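queue> pop job 88
queue> type: inverse folding (structure -> sequence)
queue> payload:
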């Protein structure tokens, strides 16, 4: 049977039993370990004349693990490169495919995280899982062009310049500050603009702002839900020549790119945040990190790289 390192629970039992003056041999029988293992554990992790502390022992264990040189591909330089990308909110899968081109598996990176072989720990990973959706409180309307009439090439993401739009709000209550969010469907490039409130006038200003800074032909259509902030659609269609398509009610999957991107943004600004207090610098940093992550759906290019490539083709 291969040797297994002492667990946190076992160290806690050793601390308790030592405080009750149990002998090394008695403790070893109670935790089903050899006396030499318990003796070595107490000797290595007792500081001065202080009694054995399981928390201190566990910290010293993780520190030794980080500084050891395990067999295999792990090196200090490799660990540093991985830590740098984790700082940029990349996932282990994104790191493995973009940085190492498959020569290092993402499962290995996860294992190193759990083993304490990286400076970062598991808490550095982005949170996964389904989120509880709050009940929709916006008013809605039933006019406008249905998504069913949207050209097939837009749905299949074959052409550039087609966007999904939405709004992200602060915590429920009197806080009105919110964000207008935009995702280009083909490249997944994501942008968010601050709005003072969730009105049609504010959304129209945000759309005009983005349209004004984008190259010609890079904002051709918009797919939105039927929230009242998009009641400005006739002006957008007439003045900016942007075709607006409305998703079906309760069909967020029809705007999946925007829903996903908004979830990524919430990692930086949780629902309890007051978006009115978010600075432009904080927002720009979050967007840069999101657009700077390699994407599996883009063959491990970043959204920023894919967007820039499409813009060059417009010239």
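queue> result:
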């Amino acid at each position: 049977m291969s040797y297994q390192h002492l667990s946190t629970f076992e160290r806690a039992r050793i601390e308790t039993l030592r405080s009750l003056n149990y002998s090394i041999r008695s403790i070893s029988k109670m935790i089903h370990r050899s006396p030499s293992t318990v003796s070595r554990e107490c000797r290595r992790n007792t500081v001065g004349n202080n009694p054995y502390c399981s928390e201190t022992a566990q910290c010293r264990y993780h520190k030794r693990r980080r500084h050891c040189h395990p067999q295999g591909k792990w090196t200090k330089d490799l660990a540093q490169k991985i830590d740098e990308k984790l700082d940029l909110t990349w996932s282990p899968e994104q790191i493995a495919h973009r940085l190492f081109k498959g020569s290092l598996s993402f499962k290995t990176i996860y294992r190193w995280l759990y083993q304490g072989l990286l400076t970062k720990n598991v808490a550095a990973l982005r949170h996964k899982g389904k989120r509880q959706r709050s009940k929709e409180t916006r008013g809605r309307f039933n006019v406008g062009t249905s998504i069913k009439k949207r050209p097939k090439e837009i749905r299949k993401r074959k052409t550039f310049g087609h966007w999904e739009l939405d709004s992200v709000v602060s915590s429920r209550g009197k806080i009105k500050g919110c964000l207008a969010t935009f995702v280009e469907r083909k490249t997944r490039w994501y942008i968010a603009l601050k709005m003072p409130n969730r009105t049609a006038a504010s959304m129209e200003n945000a759309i005009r702002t983005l349209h004004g800074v984008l190259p010609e032909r890079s904002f051709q259509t918009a797919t939105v839900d039927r929230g009242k902030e998009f009641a400005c659609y006739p002006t957008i269609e007439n003045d900016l020549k942007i075709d607006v398509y409305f998703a079906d009610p309760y069909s967020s999957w029809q705007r999946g790119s925007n829903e996903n991107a908004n979830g990524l943004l919430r990692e930086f600004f949780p629902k309890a945040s007051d978006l009115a207090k978010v600075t432009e610098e904080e927002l720009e940093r979050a967007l840069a990190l999101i657009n700077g992550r390699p994407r599996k759906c883009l063959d491990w290019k970043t959204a920023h790289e894919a967007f820039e490539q499409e813009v060059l083709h417009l010239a």
